[in-house]
Specification:
Elements (H helix, E strand, L loop, with lengths): L5 H13 L2 H8 L3 H15 L4 E4 L2 E4 L1 H25 L5 E8 L8 H10 L3 E8 L1 H10 L4 E7 L6 E6 L1 E6 L10 E4 L8 H10 L4 E4 L5 H9 L5 E4 L7 E3 L12 E7 L6 H16 L1
Helix pairs in contact: 1-2, 1-3, 1-4, 2-3, 5-9
Length: about 280
């Protein structure tokens, strides 16, 4: 009986979703060469090319288009069978740190799925700046932390790459003011240095306001058109809008959303939470 390797199928699905071998490798936590080899092995098994490559990147070939939905279904079914047969007997506690701006809609579906599947695990959540959370992990006060760091110098376990964008009030005009009022959640915000560097590189007059460690204050000030802010594109909250190029604000660098783990042997509950995080992001 002929069978398909689920590891190869998972690599194929992630590459198809991300449209990049490099980004897929980051999500799968393997080298780009390993992903390329896995795709080549699957193509050899199926007898044809799964992707077409051009100057814009990669896209699904006809064979890949036929395989994609079925591969997703097989991976989902595998997860369902595993959960039904094995069940969840995990116990213990997991201490997770999340930046202020990711603690809402971005992380909520992941934590909801984890808690529902592992009712005996006590999950505690701490919010802070990325710098503060990484320090807590290094001290052993947190088991895991999701942090934001410039993609060019990222040291954590990359979960995804996202655009750092300027945001303002819907229909607002704060971006026209001189000096430009900028609100970031905290003085230790990971976005602070690249935002300042970008503004100074444009010779734009600016002033920093409302960096008091309170996300709701920053959101309220920006939503009231008293300032602009920088946010990851995937986490821009309702009521704020991404400013277009017509705002004439400088480009901001891409950021990595990364995972950092405490030293030592991770608990089974922490390992399972990491699996849930990867699974959700791979499917999103």
């Amino acid at each position: 009986m002929q069978t398909l390797d689920l590891v190869l199928l998972r690599s194929f699905v992630v590459v198809a979703e991300k449209r990049s071998m490099t980004v897929a490798a980051q999500h799968l936590h393997v080298s780009q060469g390993a992903v390329s080899q896995q795709i080549k092995r699957l193509e050899d098994v199926l007898g044809g090319a799964l992707f077409l490559r051009d100057r814009r990147g990669i896209r699904l070939a006809p064979l890949g288009e036929r395989l994609f939905t079925k591969a997703q279904q097989m991976l989902t079914l595998n997860q369902q069978i595993w959960a039904d047969v094995k069940g969840s007997t995990l116990q213990g506690r997991v201490r997770l740190g999340v930046p202020y701006d990711l603690a809402g809609a971005w992380i909520a579906p992941i934590l909801k799925a984890f808690v529902e599947a592992n009712a005996q695990v006590e999950l505690s959540l701490k919010c802070g700046s990325s710098l503060e959370l990484k320090t807590e992990v290094d001290k052993g006060a947190l088991d895991l932390a999701i942090i934001e760091e410039a993609a060019a110098g990222a040291n954590g376990e990359c979960l995804m790459i996202d655009r750092l964008v300027w945001v303002g009030a819907s229909g607002g005009a704060a971006f026209l003011n001189t000096p430009l009022a900028v609100s970031l959640v905290a003085e230790t915000c990971a976005f602070r240095e690249p935002v300042i560097a970008a503004l100074e590189g444009q010779d734009r007059q600016w002033k920093m306001v409302f960096d008091n460690g309170n996300l709701e204050t920053t959101r309220a000030m920006v939503g009231s058109d008293l300032a602009v802010s920088a946010w990851l594109k995937s986490a821009v909250p309702p009521g704020l809008e991404i400013l277009s190029t017509e705002a004439n604000l400088p480009d901001l660098p891409p950021f990595a959303i990364s995972l950092v783990r405490s030293k030592g042997t991770a608990s089974a509950a922490a390992v399972e939470l990491v699996r849930h995080i990867h699974e959700h992001l791979d499917q999103s």
